[in-house]
Amino acid sequence: MDLGETFSWEGRRIVWGRAGSGPAVVFCHGTPWSSLLWRPFAEALSADYTVYLWDMPGYGRSSKDPGHPVDFGVQADAFTALLAHWGLDRPHVVAHDYGGAVSLRAHLVHEVPYASLLMADVVAIPPSGSPFFRLVKQHPDVLTQVPPYIHEALVRAYISNAAYRQLREDDLAALVAPWLGDDGQPAFYRQIAAYDERYLAENEALLDRIDIPVSVLWGTEDAWIPVATGERLAAGIRGATFTLVDDAGHLIQLDAPVALATALRSWLTGVSS
Length: 273
Description:
Elements: E1 5-9, E2 12-20, E3 24-28, H1 39-45, E4 50-54, H2 72-86, E5 92-97, H3 98-108, E6 116-122, H4 131-138, H5 140-144, H6 148-161, H7 169-176, H8 181-193, H9 198-206, E7 214-219, H10 227-235, E8 241-245, H11 252-255, H12 257-272
Parallel strand pairs: 3-4, 3-5, 5-6, 6-7, 7-8
Antiparallel strand pairs: 1-2, 2-4
Helix pairs in contact: 2-3, 3-9, 6-7
């Protein structure tokens, strides 16, 4: 499934792709990821659903202009505009990491209607952020200036730490690649510097407004965001289900792909019937 389409929004270039037929399912990635993580799951579902992938501005293959903010608010605005561009009516939304905050804000603040929402190891409510994430946020300008080989080593170690199992070299290289080079290196630190927890606090204060089916999945070995945060998120949403995925860290797509694919299809079958 190729991201062969582009959407121009407020000077940004957002790449996206669509495949399949049936009810609409939109995937939202997080940081420092891209739609690449969701691609095999979208492709597997495309026989029964119309699946949509997109790279947020500042991520993956979308534009990384240093003058464009990339905070939660901007990403939710972009997502709202993209959904309107697609002309979707109540899509199912699947989110990971940062995508949780973005999809929640689009639904709760911009009042975009969804058919259902599944969130896997999401950044959605405070607190959040690994120790390295917090360090980068305190010194983004300094780290932007490190030599490229040191930067690449940092990003590789950071991404590897998100997984419970050892990543395959080709998977790791693909996840690191968007953050290398003259555009990628500053963009990596810029998106961390833009992190603002007030958006997460706003999300949490509005959770009781959600009246759609919601599922929260969490890797038992998530070293970035503890299971207790996922439990608190699910408890704040009326009727939400909470499911633990064994032997999975924050990179649940690569740690437990079979369990995640099974949970996704089961969830979508249930809420689409």
